[in-house]
Amino acid sequence: MSNHHLKYAIALHTTSPHLGLAISNFQADTRSQTWELGRDTSSYLHQYLVDFIQPQTWQDLSFIAVARGPGGFTGTRVGMVTARTFAQQLDIPVFAISTLSAIAQTVKSNYPNQLLAVEMEARREEVFTALYQVSPDGTEISEKQTDKIMKREIWQEYL
Q1: For the segment 40-83, what is each residue's pLDDT rounded down to a tens digit?
Q2: 3-state secondary structure labels for all residues of 94-157
Q3: pLDDT tens across 93-115, in order?
Q4: Cα–Cα distance between 45 and 17 in angstroms, integer?
Q5: CB 127 within 8 A of CB 155
Q6: How many CB atoms lie within 10 A of CB 125?
Q7: What 3-state class would DSSP assign to 63?
Q8: How far is CA 96 from CA 62, 63, 65, 67, in A?
Q9: Partners of residue 128 on adjacent β-strands
Q10: What is the pairing mode between strands 115-121 and 94-97?
Q11: Over 80: is that where the pLDDT of 24 sits?
């Protein structure tokens, strides 16, 4: 029996020099890949998307998720515009996800019932920061401090 009839979602990450794509039907079929593209993400994003989505088609998608940053301005903008354009053309929803929240989601099970501090390099001795409370069973997070940019030493004092 083919999984082709199941609806899929695709995710785009363009906020760093790495292009990240993932597709899943939230059952048995999930795949993801990253490419080091540096400043060339905008030049190659569409071709990588076209190649990556196969054997699925655009009509197989039920929604799109996109990293909304923090991260590089141009890459983030390219990802957001691409996701919104595809979503409008396909008449499906697009969900913008914090890059820091996505990081917290991937590690939450390691920190049950703890406060989770997430940081990401920015520029000029600054870091992007956020705080999340992990549920007692490690399955959920709630935002305690939204995404912010701050000087590294202020973040260290804050922690």
Answers
A1: 888 999 999 999 999 999 999 999 999 999 988 899 999 999 99
A2: EEEECHHHHHHHHHHHHCCCCEEEEEEECCCCEEEEEEEEECCCCCCEEEEEEEEEEEHHHHHH
A3: 999 999 999 999 999 999 999 99
A4: 12
A5: yes
A6: 10
A7: strand
A8: 15, 11, 6, 6
A9: 120, 149
A10: unpaired
A11: yes
Q: What are residue 71's phi and psi, to 5 degrees?
A: 160, -165
Report which DSSP code applies to 82.
H
Maximum Cα–Cα distance for the chain, whole Å? 56
Q: Which of 117, 107, 116, 115 is nearest to 139 (CA)?
A: 107
Q: Find tokens 């992007």 and name the residue.
A: 128
CA distance 88 to 109: 35
Is 151's pLDDT higher than 60? yes
Cβ–Cβ < 8 Å for 46, 100 = no
Token pair of 64 as six digits: 């799109």
The residue type found at 24 is: S
108 touches 85 (CB < 8 A): no
Tokens representing 98 are 């914090």
**pTM of the full predicted structure?**
0.85
Residue 73: how many other CB atoms lie within 10 Å: 10
Taking a C-beta distance cutoff of 8 angstroms, is the pair 52, 30 a contact?
no
Are the C-beta atoms of residues 100 and 147 closer than 8 Å to each other? Answer: yes
